[in-house]
């Protein structure tokens, strides 16, 4: 059971953040010792990638999914960045948690998990843009803790683990993005509402957010023959 999964959540988060920052010309170093450990993990799994997807493949596909979301709705993310008011760490953490709770408030699916990563990456980029690079380490820790929390940890485990994301995204690369407008609306409302108002210390209700979060946007399109709306693989 000790080797049940080859994936390390902190490694997944750190590599994703590093990718988002590098795209904008920022270099963010791994924590001391983390880079060497991550490299060793990938080297160990390269030879055993088949039949099980190794960490390197997961990192690549997760980056591609996040980049696709960003490209499809670049203006919406830009608008979100304009609304963010990066605050001291404690206030930013409350905002981060508020957005995550809105995003997963009515359920979890792989699309929302990708959006969670993209939101965290957006916060990191915005923090560096505002010369508050020290926030990146904090955001990385919050993302890791949330993914390791009971909600997402149990959902990912019960829905096939990260290998399931690799399988679903690999097979449904083209169709997975058709429902993004629903997610974009939900994510935009959560980010602009929860984050924007919390950063400015004016919290308001988001009456439409809960309704939109209940939309099964990732439904049959995400995995039409083998999944229900949550991404869980159904048995024949």
TrEMBL record:
Lineage of producing organism: Eukaryota, Metazoa, Chordata, Craniata, Vertebrata
Highest taxon, organism lineage: Eukaryota
Motif (BH4): 9-28
SMART domains membership: BCL
Annotated localization: Membrane
Primary location class: membrane
Gene Ontology cellular-component terms listed: mitochondrial outer membrane
Pfam families: Bcl-2, BH4
Domain Apoptosis regulator Bcl-2 family BH4, first and last residues per copy: 9-28
Family affiliation: Belongs to the Bcl-2 family.
Protein name per Swiss-Prot or TrEMBL: Apoptosis regulator Bcl-2 family BH4 domain-containing protein
This protein's UniProt keywords: Apoptosis, Membrane
A molecular-function term among this protein's GO annotations: BH domain binding
PROSITE patterns: BCL2_FAMILY, BH1, BH2, BH4_2
Record GO biological process: extrinsic apoptotic signaling pathway in absence of ligand; intrinsic apoptotic signaling pathway in response to DNA damage; negative regulation of apoptotic process; release of cytochrome c from mitochondria
């Amino acid at each position: 059971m000790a080797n049940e999964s080859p994936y390390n959540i902190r490694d997944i988060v750190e590599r994703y953040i590093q990718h988002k920052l590098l795209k904008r010309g920022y270099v963010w170093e791994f924590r001391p010792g983390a880079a060497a450990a991550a490299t060793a993990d990938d080297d160990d799994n390269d030879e055993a990638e088949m039949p099980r997807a190794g960490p390197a493949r997961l990192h690549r596909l997760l980056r591609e999914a996040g980049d696709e979301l960003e490209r499809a709705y670049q203006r919406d993310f830009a608008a979100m960045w304009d609304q963010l008011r990066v605050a001291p760490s404690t206030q930013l953490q409350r905002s981060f948690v508020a957005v995550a709770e809105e995003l997963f408030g009515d359920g979890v699916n792989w699309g929302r998990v990708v959006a969670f990563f993209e939101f965290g990456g957006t916060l990191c980029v915005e923090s560096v843009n505002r010369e508050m690079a020290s926030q990146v380490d904090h955001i990385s820790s919050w993302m890791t803790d949330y993914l390791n929390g009971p909600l997402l940890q149990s959902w990912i485990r019960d829905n096939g683990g990260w290998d399931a994301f690799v399988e679903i995204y690999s097979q449904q690369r083209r169709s997975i993005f058709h429902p993004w407008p629903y997610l974009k609306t939900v994510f935009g409302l959560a980010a602009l509402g929860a984050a924007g108002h919390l950063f400015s210390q004016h919290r308001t209700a988001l009456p439409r957010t809960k309704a939109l979060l209940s939309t099964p946007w990732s439904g049959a399109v995400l995995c039409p023959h083998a999944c229900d709306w949550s991404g869980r693989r159904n048995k024949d």
